[in-house]
Amino acid sequence: MLRFSSLFVRNASSNSFSMPRILITGANGQLGGELAEALRGRFGPDAVLCTDIRVPAPSVQSSGAYFRYLDCTNKDDFARLVVEHRITHIVHYAALLSAIGERNPKEALHLNMRGTEVALEVAQNYGSVIMIPSSIAAFGPTTPRMNTPNITIQRPNTIYGVSKVYAELLGEYYHKRFGVDFRCVRYPGIISWKSAPGGGTTDWSNHAFFAACEPQSAYTCFVRPDTKMPLMYVPDCIKGTIDLMLADEKKLSCRTYNLNALSFSPDDLARAIRRHVPHFKIDYAPDMRQAIADSWPVSLDDADARRDWGWQPQYSLEALTADMLQNIMAQRA
Ligand code: AKB
């Protein structure tokens, strides 16, 4: 049954849409619910269709967005939703992340690669704008680690990283060869309180906050204290995603953009948390995720995103820490 009520009109001459209608795959992950909420706030209650293979996550339910089951590797099912809901924009989040991907490389290979191929095919067939976020995982041990350029060496050594390089290159190929409006941002680790991340190497940055709010206020971190990584608070991530999704195509000098915000280590974060929770304790038991973290950049050069579509993160480590702790405590009260 068609649930969306507002009319979608594509302006063929400018390739713009009077009323975006957005389908999100993998919406039950860390970011889908928050993105859906922000998009509904901007474009109205009918603007967003969340999809996943699992029952709707609490953040998706509380966003109020419509929800449909979708295995994004199934092209017919994907196309049917795009047609029935007159989708103008696809945000393709469904993927197995870095750490969980290493535990299930074949599953990651199928979901991440095939999901990307299907999403691009559907976008081509139905003229949707397609946003496929990439990641710092698309870089590897031979990439320059400080202020990593937008165009540089990309030889990742995780299956997730390989699949993200594939998504970047395939999306750019579909853009050049078939005119698909493909857009991509390389996310750093994202910190959020409404939904937890699942299976990433940057997850320590979220876990530490939730552990700090437990009565014993102690956390055992799976990477070393000095492991500095690129990180970002979720409001900046959502804003950057929407800004690129809606940016005037004429202003885009490329299709894949680095996004930088903060770089900090578990030790830096522990000190920031202790300003609010003085008895917070952290100890360290590095595991296989250390090697992944060591192969990724420390910071990214995002000058292209700043110049082309005005990217500018808002949150400092201090502001993020205060906001995270306040929200987690309020959620538990
Ligand atoms: C991960 O750690 O795998 C993700 C990412 C950086 O893409 N958070």
UniProtKB/TrEMBL annotation:
EC assignment: 1.1.1.103
Pathway stated in the Swiss-Prot or TrEMBL entry: Amino-acid degradation; L-threonine degradation via oxydo-reductase pathway; glycine from L-threonine: step 1/2
Swiss-Prot/TrEMBL GO biological process terms: L-threonine catabolic process
InterPro entries assigned: Epimerase_deHydtase, NAD(P)-bd_dom_sf, NAD(P)_epim/dehydratase
Substrates-to-products reaction catalysed: L-threonine + NAD(+) = (2S)-2-amino-3-oxobutanoate + NADH + H(+)
Domain of life, source organism: Eukaryota
Gene3D superfamilies from the UniProt entry: NAD(P)-binding Rossmann-like Domain
Residues of the NAD-dependent epimerase/dehydratase domain: 22-258
Function text: Catalyzes the NAD(+)-dependent oxidation of L-threonine to 2-amino-3-ketobutyrate, mediating L-threonine catabolism.
Family: Belongs to the NAD(P)-dependent epimerase/dehydratase family.
Name of the protein this chain belongs to: L-threonine 3-dehydrogenase, mitochondrial
